[in-house]
Amino acid sequence: MKSFSTLSGSETTDLHQPLSHESAIPDAKVDARIVWFMGPRSAGLTGVGQHSLALAAALSKYTNFKVETVDIDAKPRSFKRYWNQFVRYPLHAFRVARSTDMIILYAEDLSFLIPIIHLAGGRVCLMFHHVQLPGHARGLVERLKSLYVQMFLPLAPKADLVLVEGPAAAKDLIEVAPVNPERIKIVPCPFEDKYSPLDAATPAETRAQARSILKERLGLEIGNALMLLNVGSDETRKNNLTLFQALAKLQRKDLLLVRVGKAFNATNRMECKTLADTSGINVHFADSVSEEDLGYFYQAADIYVSATLHEGFGRTVIEAQMAGTPVIASDIPVFRGSMGDTFLAVKNPTNPDEWVKAISSLIDSPSLMDELREGGKTNALQYSPDVVCDGLHRILLRAF
């Protein structure tokens, strides 16, 4: 079995003024080869991995680009993964840099490849997703990851091109690394239309169908509960504990919280579970969910909640909007940039009382539910892969 595989093909842009396909292609003909270095194959369903996979696939529609993706056939935290990332990846990058127009690194944790690619005479584009803020790393794994990214942060300014997901991420990056602002380009996350697999006559019928499917496939009994959904890993910056504290205060027996995502921080997960057990919170943890089932989770929910304190973009809120699920989220710049006024914002996301107020107000207002549902669907349209990729195509052509 190969340790990593190569698969063929598969100016900042205003998000509200998407580029047309025609405007993205200048008269000059370019025949460019792009090699996209990904992370562990089994981590492809993470937000970072999804971002690159969707963009690489969408770029394949352009006949003047040949896009190849390279990934590591290993589990995220395994010896095999690190052997391939730190030994075989550098050798492969040095080799292909001589025959490619651009190497794209899918995340900041591959920044160490930048000088190796330059040494071989190649050009490199770094996708930088988010800056770890002080105080947002707790526990051994989170701190090690933070130290690792900080160690290679000085290499980011040496990339020929740096792609970030939004203005907030660009601002954070410039504050911590001397990256030339002219090299930073904004390419938001693209989203394929796969989070709303059901299309019943009404939202209520869609929820009922999705819940029935989850019961049949996963044994999850939701019934007529008011389901709150949160998707993402257990990390300090995700602020999940505050959400649990709010539900402990709310004391509504008709609420079910479903948490989808791995326990990246085991201590954080245990704190949430302990609080749920002692306060009577009805909660279901789903660590591993397929892409198909994730769509059913989104459509089974009454409300999507995200208490995160910091994101580079925050994919899950847009995924929820695509599925027609109203969103309550932290009032942080990245969400204001990606959702505008199409979500219910919690001004102080570290205050459980504000979450109690927001959740209660939305549950008690069907008209607001409908408004956020329709506004969210409209908002999500701007993130289709074709729209986003037109902007990336023009950025890369100008870089060539």
From TrEMBL:
Pfam families registered for this protein in UniProt: Glycos_transf_1
EC number, UniProt record: 2.4.1.250
Keyword Transferase: yes
Class in the EC hierarchy, top level: transferase
GO MF annotation list: D-inositol-3-phosphate glycosyltransferase activity
Record domain Glycosyl transferase family: where: 225-377
Keyword Lipid metabolism: no
Source species, domain of life: Bacteria
Keyword annotations: Glycosyltransferase, Transferase
Region: Disordered, residue numbers: 1-20
Biased composition (Polar residues): 1-12
Protein name: D-inositol-3-phosphate glycosyltransferase
Organism the protein comes from: Paraburkholderia metrosideri
Originating gene: mshA_5
